[in-house]
Amino acid sequence: MNRVWKDAAIGAVGGGLGGTAGGFLARGANAARVATSAGSTSRVVTTSNAVLRSSVVRSSLAAGTGGSGSNVVSYALDDNEVQTINGYFATAGTGFVTAAGGSAVFSKLG
């Protein structure tokens, strides 16, 4: 697979995962808000409502999901690397932390 197709696959997976996660997080935030307004006292619902109310948190989680997916695909398609399960976890974690952190920092700057 040539570099252009690898980059396209990496971008498509990262963008797709980030967008999908963002959509699910927005729906989850709405559901938690509705349940809380209806009087739910469940710890899961009230905690979810408190956490997902923040657009910074939602965007950071979505960005982290996309970054994690991009790194995993990049690692999987690297012909010069011997892939291991530890490598997949390390690249996924690094992608999540850097993308989520970058998203949170830049959203606060804007």
Describe the structure.
It is built from 4 helices and no strands. The chain has 110 residues and is an all-alpha fold. It is elongated and about 55 Å long. It starts with a helix and ends with a helix. The model has no long low-confidence stretch (mean pLDDT 92).
Q: Which oligomeric form is depicted?
A: single chain
Cα-atom radius of gyration: 17 Å
Structural category is: mainly alpha
Straight-line distance between termini? 38 Å
Largest sheet: none
Low-confidence stretches: none
Q: What order do the SSEs take from the amino end to the carboxyl end, as H and E?
A: HHHH
Total strand segments: 0
* Principal-axis shape: elongated
Helix content: over 70%
Query: How many individual helices?
Result: 4
Residue share in β-strands: under 5%
Concise structural overview:
This protein is mainly α and 110 residues long. It contains four helices and no strands. The longest helix has 35 residues.
